[in-house]
Amino acid sequence: MNSRRNVTDWICRMIVLCSVLVTLYPVIFVSLTSLKATSEFYSNIWGIPRDFAWSNYYSAWISSRIGFYFRISIIVVGTSVFMILAFGALAGYALSRLRVPYVSAMAAAIIVVTQLMPLESVIMPLYLMMSKMKLLNGYLTLILPYIGWGMPMTILIFKNYFDTIPRELMEAARIDGCSEMQCFVKIAMPVMKPATATNAIFNFVGLWGELLWASVSTATSRFGTLPIGIISFKQQFSTDWGPMSAAICIVILPLVLLFGFLQKYFVQGLSNGAVKG
Predict the structure, then answer these.
(1) Superfamily of domain 64-271
(2) 13-64 pLDDT, tens digit each
(3) Which residue, 6, 19, 31, 92, has most beta carbons within 10 Å?
(4) Distances in whole angstroms, Cα of residue 266 to Cα of each of 147, 179, 199, 201, 274
């Protein structure tokens, strides 16, 4: 029995190891390519760079305007995630702690709408609405839809996590004279770091690489986010692989830093049931 369990454990470990290698290899490959000249890329695709071409990062940031797109992405995604977390926490608290009729039906509707409705089905109506409101080719063109797309699942995660807070704790705060908003700020939110980190990572990763709406809504201007900047590297007859890989590394870096900073709360949020439903 023990030998069979050991074999099963080793198989699971090998599967996990293979999954990690498959996940990390593209990142390593792009990182090495970002330090190669384009001519060396074609002659030494799989090897370590012979001469480290750090100028690729300068070329990507300045000459290819990745710095410009990076600034726009930081403003758009940062603002969107902040608003999603703020409004999502308030809505999740209301659904969890206030007497809202048909809460279970509303939560189920959120799941159905967000999971079954494809993004492509709302692109044209959204574009027409933004055009009539004269909001195309600007920050609000991206921020407003991003907030709308991120809210449903964020509300659901916050609601499920608020449900785990003992009601006796909230009742004790009310007896001590706390208003509902004070209960939210002083009692509920300090213990919501895992759920907040979970929502922040999910939304930031999803919006940071969003391309479909960004390309449609900014097609008639030079305004755009980082995915639009990456596409600009593709030329008609060739691609400058060194600077392009450097730009991809620049895009990946904020995701790595965010997850490294919030991973403790993210894992805690998953283990405590922040995404149960």
Answers:
(1) MetI-like (1.10.3720.10)
(2) 889 888 888 888 888 888 888 888 878 888 888 888 888 888 889 888 988 7
(3) 92
(4) 21, 30, 9, 8, 9
pTM, two decimals, is 0.83
DSSP assignment string, 23-87: HHHHHHHHHHHTTS-HHHHHHSSSS--SS--THHHHIIIIIT-HHHHHHHHHHHHHHHHHHHHHH
CA-atom Rg of the chain in angstroms: 23
In tens, the pLDDT along 195-214 reads: 888 899 889 999 998 888 88
- The closest alpha carbon to 60, from 42, 41, 29, 38, belongs to 38
Whole-angstrom distance, CA of residue 87 vs CA of residue 71: 24
> Kind and range of the H or E element at 201?
helix 193-208
CA 248 to mean position of chain CA atoms: 16
Q: Three-state SS for 129?
A: helix
